[in-house]
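Morning F.,

Quick status update on the modeling queue. The single chain you submitted on Monday has been processed. Sequence for confirmation:
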Amino acid sequence: MNFNRRQNRIAGPGFHINVRYDDQMMAKAHSTASMPHKHVNLGRNHKENFDVKEQELLVCKRGSSMYHDGYTHCISSANGFDGTGTIPANASTEEVAEYILSNVQFVGVATTEYKPSRAYSEQGFVAQVGGVTTLINEGESTIKPGDKVALGLNLKVGRKTARDKGIPRDKIRFCLVKAGNSRTNIGKAMDATGQSVPAGQADIGTAQKAVSDAEKDLRKYKGSDAAKLTALNKAVADAKTALGGLTLCRKGVDGMIDFLDKYQELNERVIGKAASYARPGDRLEVILQPRNPY
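Structure tokens below.
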């Protein structure tokens, strides 16, 4: 069977915008001064890895770039990602992937191919930012209809290479992953900002119950034993102190702000909702939707 990149593509309504290529990100990836981490160093000098193919996920660098033409400048490769040299050399693949994902923002899905060249001919470089599109599940989990899908990055050594034909084996593409629910994202945000409860301590629900039980024992006591009354009051105070140590704002207002920023960032990675079933390697339809932080 002949290869066709449009195989099983669904024809649905879509919203498209003109975009431009981020030449600065590519130049920094090629530069030795960028000091990319070992997990993304592979293939950063292969120019073909920076070509944009149809249906690839496009991202832009979070924050401002030195472009003043009014266009969104994006890229589809994480090879040689600039700035990864700032994290420890012994960082895990998950830590490097999290660093990269926290420094990019999802733009859309490439509608057209683009090959960066000195000719600077970017007319016709288009991204789909809304509607229905067909993508490949290059993640590690099965996606089911109705699942929220988010921007992800798999840097594991044993990962499978790009499922799509015509893609270099060492190109690191952004992929789809199942989006975490609120409980999962809250836990990740707490871990990332140092708000997590230390191991061995009771969780907030258990601590709240301990306060309630201690107050109930105090109300029930009708005796006149001063020592007993003092012990009951102390139990209430100790339970409230333990609960206070488990509050989310363990680092004060600044810690709470950091937590909310990280939680919002995790929610912004959600790019849409799956409309079909897809095992790893299968194609699926995705309904792109506005990235609401809440």
